[in-house]
Fold each of these.
Amino acid sequence: MHQAQLQLELLDNVVQSKRSATAGEHESLDFIAGSALLGWAASKLYTLLGSDAFMVFHSGKVRFGDGLPAIENGEAALPMPLCWHEDKVDGVAYKNGVVDAGKIYNWFHQKPDWVKQPRQLRNGFITQSGKILLPSKSHSPHIAIIQKPDDNKLFGYESLGSTQRYIATITADDDISVDLFDKVVSEFRSKVIRIGRSKSTEYGRVKAEILETTTEKKIPEDISGQKELTLWLRSDMAIRDNHGSPVLLPIDPTWLGLPKGRITNAFIRYRSYAPYNAYRQARDVEQQVLLAGSVIKFEFDEPLTKCHAEILAGGLGTHREAGLGVVEVNPKLLADSRPCFEFASITLTNTDRATDNVSSESKSPLIAFLEKRAGRTSSQQDSKQWAVDKLEMLRTQYLSARNYNGIKDDQAFGPGRSQWRRVYEATMGATPDEVISKLFTDHDCACRVGNNERTGDDDWSIDISQGGTLSGWLKQEVESIRDEPDFNLCLQWLTRLAETLRDNPKGELQ
């Protein structure tokens, strides 16, 4: 099997529509669809390849995988598995981009006693080392001028933000010649490609490079002889039954080329969309697919063989040439009730904590003082890092508000130093509930929303998107850390860093 790994760096924002409907709010995918890469290659090679074009672009023997977010070392993240849950009462299971394995449980296993209100993890991508990636998005309004001023229509695009990096994989079966595969891959070697919607305007430029130092990921050989199988979808999957009808629950594994059997457990979401064909300038037949991140567990009547391993390696279902049907087989992250990340930090058990508490009584005053001081330093660093991360999000909200409301670059807007000082003062000597009341619910709250009168504050009431305000964004972020021990410290750092945003017309940080 041939394989080439691509690095995709977004030079512009890229519009990847989640659904084909034109009415309602536009939503973007959080990955680069493999169909976009296939479309780019087809636009350059379809005529040149002649009779080989069908084998490359339609047979499924050559597969253009989705571009998934990547971290600094080039590791591609995987879609969040839908079988993972967190306790809504206990707070979010990730902080500052790192997942706390102790707050996640796998619903494939027995529900633990400490879970009161389970909540499914749906957003983001997870790495083998426990880092979570949430691709940044932005919304830009546009106006469509049709014929007369009365016909003008306002619309908008949600897009993936520029400067982000993604990793995609192009694979081909053994019966595809090396020369033919090289022709396909060469269209992505150190080139700037254009993908997505509105790529003829300000969207769609992506720098593509071939990563030469990649190795092929193979399906483990130990699946031979097994009668159970867990599949974690790396990409969307389109399934059809024996009559050619689309299905959303593969109750019969033979539809996927696997032995007879049954589903024993599954966590599935799905969507419908009609891919746009730029050559025909029309949409193809609507597809119903299982979403990436879905997890399915099968039990078979007869053991798996090496032939089934080869089927899994090539992907399952239809439209595999567009990157659909890529799966992780028996993933280690889903093997236990809790995820086991590589290089994960050690979590003390109750017994360990009790032993640690007993030993601390015999420590000298100097050691106790230094450990207390180190704890305060660590708390300061964690709180500041949280504020820095939220400040970058706040900068994005400022830019979104400027575009949404048509505010000029030389016009200052948003909360100034006095408003942020009021937020800072609300955190002094108050509990999280008292802080939230002082900021959002009291009669004279610091972040009140309304009109020009004393019932509201224009600086906090400014719209950052359709139906959202800057005050609403801040309230959501504040409530997300209500149960954190450093709640007040986090907000204090955020207010200190955010005071300069209004003084910078372009929302640049100081």
Note: Residues 221-334 form a domain with the Immunoglobulin-like fold (CATH 2.60.40.4350).
Amino acid sequence: MTANPILLQKKYARIVKLFADEEHISLDTALQFFYKSEVYTLLREGISDMHCRSDQYLAEELRMEYHKE
């Protein structure tokens, strides 16, 4: 299932904001990391309907990926 591209862009923005706030990093840094992340790839490609998961869940997944590096 694919998400509406406009709604998906808004979801990206909310996830990046949550991630930046939780990690105490700038939005620019958070956005750069997001676009290189596996979370973004899964969302963009519609794998496992990741876009259906909550923003908080996806931000946490992003945080776990961030701390893995």
Note: The radius of gyration is 11 Å.
Amino acid sequence: MFEVFEHTADLGLRIRAGDLPTLMAEAGRALFSVIVADLGKVELRQRVTLHVSFDEHPLLLQDWLSELLFLFESRQIVLTDFQVSIADGELTATVAGEELNPARHQLQNEVKAITYHGLLVEQVDGGWLAEVILDI
């Protein structure tokens, strides 16, 4: 589960999940829900495998979302499916979506960067909570 909240000239994401891999998958969906108006129009035509090493959970969130944003910007791939596993200080994910098609995918926000401001990932009762601010 995720929600978007306003933060001055930026947007914030608050994500909750039962475990860390699900939290990262939800964070990916949240990011693309800010970029694309209707993720339901995105088809699963391409798959990409990503690896992100980390020492701390907040930095993992920032690096993970930055990697997804780079994939979008460099290859124009809109993602909607995130299969994430985490072990031994590394996140491994298979992400799926398709090339941006302006006829079907309406862009709603240009995300410039994933910031460190207010970055939070913590274990809470019943699971995990994350917050991140997007520079738009």
Note: The mean pLDDT is 94.
